[in-house]
Backbone:
């Protein structure tokens, strides 16, 4: 079963993200989870087996495009169709809000993730992503 997360799911979902190697030192996954639940334009969807979180995906709408982050399936549950089901649930959540297009970012060199998304019919986009960390009153 896939459903929207609640604040009580935070520890289990963040632990899943960590187990799947999705976190990075410069991103606070606890803050990401809390912020996703704090706004009407984003959420975290969780797949459960009983009370255990076995998969999750963060989804949001920036006013122009839908974005998917932190798609995670417990390592022992991979290759069971759960990742595909989570993507379908995320896309349905966005479609229900009238979002015209979904996008996501994959780190270079992650051949497994690239193959997964390509198998689902997502296409590489001819864009380059630029970024900068913002902190406090100054730009780092």
Residues:
């Amino acid at each position: 079963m896939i459903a929207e997360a609640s604040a009580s799911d935070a520890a289990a979902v963040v632990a899943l993200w960590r187990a799947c190697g999705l976190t990075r030192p410069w991103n606070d996954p606890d803050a990401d989870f809390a912020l996703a639940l704090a706004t009407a334009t984003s959420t975290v969807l969780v797949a459960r087996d009983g009370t255990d979180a076995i998969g999750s995906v963060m989804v949001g709408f920036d006013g122009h495009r839908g974005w998917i982050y932190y798609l995670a399936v417990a390592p022992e549950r991979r290759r069971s169709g759960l990742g595909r089901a989570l993507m379908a649930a995320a896309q349905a959540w966005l479609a229900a809000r009238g979002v015209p297009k979904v996008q996501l970012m994959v780190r270079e060199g992650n051949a497994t993730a690239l193959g997964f998304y390509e198998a689902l019919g997502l296409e590489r986009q001819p864009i380059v992503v630029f970024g900068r960390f913002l902190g406090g009153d100054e730009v780092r």
The first strand starts at residue 2 and ends at 4. The beta strands are 2-4, 42-49, 52-61, 66-73, 102-104, 134-135, 138-139. Helices lie at 10-19, 29-38, 82-95, 111-119. The longest helix spans residues 82-95.
